[in-house]
Amino acid sequence: xxxxxxxxxxxxxxxxxxxxxxxxxxxxxxxxxxxxxxxxxxxxxxxxxxxxxxxxxxxxxxxxxxxxxxxxxxxxxxxxxxxxxxxxxxxxxxxxxxxxxxxxxxxxxxxxxxxxxxxxxxxxxxxxxxxxxxxxxxxxxxxxxxxxxxxxxxxxxxxxxxxxxxxxxxxxxxxxxxxxxxxxxxxxxxxxxxxxxxxxxxxxxxxxxxxxxxxxxxxxxxxxxxxxxxxxxxxxxxxxxxxxxxxxxxxxxxxxxxxxxxxxxxxxxxxxxxxxxxxxxxxxxxxxxxxxxxxxxxxxxxxxxxxxxxxxxxxxxxxxxxxxxxxxxxxxxxxxxxxxxxxxxxxxxxxxxxxxxxxxxxxxxxxxxxxxxxxxxxxxxxxxxxxxxxxxxxxxxxxxxxxxxxxxxxxxxxxxxxxxxxxxxxxxxxxxxxxxxxxxxxxxxxxxxxxxxxxxxxxxxxxxxxxxxxxxxxxxxxxxxxxxxxxxxxxxxxxxxxxxxxxxxxxxxxxxxxxxxxxxxxxxxxxxxxxxxxxxxxxxxxxxxxxxxxxxxxxxxxxxxxxxxxxxxxxxxxxxxxxxxxxxxxxxxxxxxxxxxxxxxxxxxxxxxxxxxxxxxxxxxxxxxxxxxxxxxxxxxxxxxxxxxxxxxxxxxxxxxxxxxxxxxxxxxxxxxxxxxxxxxxxxxxxxxxxxxxxxxxxxxxxxxxxxxxxxxxxxxxxxxxxxxxxxxxxxxxxxxxxxxxxxxxxxxxxxxxxxxxxxxxxxxxxxxxxxxxxxxxxxxxxxxxxxxxxxxxxxxxxxxxxxxxxxxxxxxxxxxxxxxxxxxxxxxxxxxxxxxxxxxxxxxxxxxxxxxxxxxxxxxxxxxx
Length: 866
Fold this sequence. Notes:
45% helix
């Protein structure tokens, strides 16, 4: 299964992101050799005829342009020791953020011909970094770079399980034909470039995401430069006036600043002369090029950068400051003296393009980058061939084993009412069982069901979940109000009901399904058998439904179950969120998977609860079971076998451990809203400790918050919760919740902030702000950065009169109406007995019942309540 998932992810991302990666690969290869190509295209700009005299000094070049073009604003001057190499000056030019380089004859100061191809390489650079469409393109290329890492790792995994020789792994087999040759070309060449692509992706993300860049600094143990951190801060969203002001600040030239500080051209000329003479006297090492930055302020200091005569790569620059007041060279920072980690972080572009590791490696990187289109093309060809083959296989299978519908069989209608998808899943499985024995079946959700559907059918099956305190699922509320309140002659109709619920709520267990049964009977329909109740998808009860249908149809129906497979997760962090609170302790739990886990904001974590060590020891002592007794059938110790068993069951005398275990049913699983999204690389839960009447911790909360040790394994499965999924556009959202219900809302808000959608409103309630303001720093940071436009808090015990979230909702009634008119979607997460019911009533009072029903029907009122 894992391999199948990896394969599906690999090919799907390949056909969707492959084109972008191909563009990035080709443009990156071209841009890597920008300077050699430009030198080849512009020999008259980069080289001059050597003369039998010294090159002009920085001061002489500065003086020349002060005379010939006093309006020219010079940022820096660069000299090359090679007699035939030109010099250059960097000047201010509108639209050029880093200035504009003019190539200069080092002997005469004449301006050399304009460099051809500069605009082309600027286009190539933009195409490589953001597809020339600005921030949106940058997000696309960043995402595709992350996908490249997925390609590499999933591709390796797909090849790794097979035992291959060195030749099979790395040698092409040109004798192969058709699909086999394409696969071999794709896989073998892909293995060749694995290292190159991993390095390209990991270094390329340095420019894509600030969190990745910060992580690289932390992993390599290098302090992040203050200037870079400030530049990143400046890149945050600003209004137009701030952007214009920042642009003006950036375009101020060094010379303009110097003039503002009172440095005259004569003083600059003298400083350049002193610097040139002092640097050459004191540097004590050979160099190839020297760049002199014109002074920024009248403190007598000039910043320099120079490259060694034999440099490691093109950006292996040394830095220094020359103090003209003392005529000394200060703060000399030699590149060769840096540690390897510092060299890497200060030379990210050479590392990315490969020149950091030498010209041979750079050439190999360029070849690997140019191969990107190969994988896109071969991947598409493999996909099309596989699709064609699958179609042919399905046609052959259909023609050979087509299901023959019994012409005398009556049609079945299966209607489901589902909140989390379980009822829908069982409805379709029931349909499959009937279709396999030749029965014609139609499946519909109850919100699509009409009275005419029931009038025109003779046999119907209802699969219905009960939600909250005995209510219909949200999307079935209109069915409950309109259909179940109507009177209609259904005397022609035969039916059966499968009722889904949880016996943890005995007063409302399967209430909605029973209301359907009562309505059908009251209108004359005949039941084949009494409603079959299913507690938490109990497989035995589901099978009872299948057996009952088999008796009705007189057909041998296939067994029908819902398999629950739990994965191993590691509990990596557990900390209390409400120390000293008057309420029960609430914990922030963080788990990490050993596998690649996927979920969406709004999904549910289903955790297999377990017994504490003390509880297992007491049970073993009660039944006189020796420690570490081996269970032959399971090949584990009895302690391991008992960890997830219900030890409160009455036990009859047992002959062996297998006989004992057969008497013990599994402990029920517990469900929790997920508070994080996959990009955070951690699954976060918010769990409040629950206690029964005897003061014992609840099964799930006790297991997660106390009994399970840190870094131990937790059995967990992710269950999709489509009725609470986040909308995929930038419409406003209103998140309403209390207590641990904040978890589900946090996942939604995390996803929204990642998408830069800022129209978010959170209404959250707890007891005391001082102790119960969960994730306060995160929420306040979102609010201060504009990612959370509104934050309304209801701390019920911070004042004499208790205030809850529904009070806040009523206070903001006009604002609520305005957001709803703008298309807002409401998400409610938390306790249904108090908060969710009160919120529902408040919404009806503010918006009207018809409006709230329409919001439910349109998927704009979504709830995850318990």
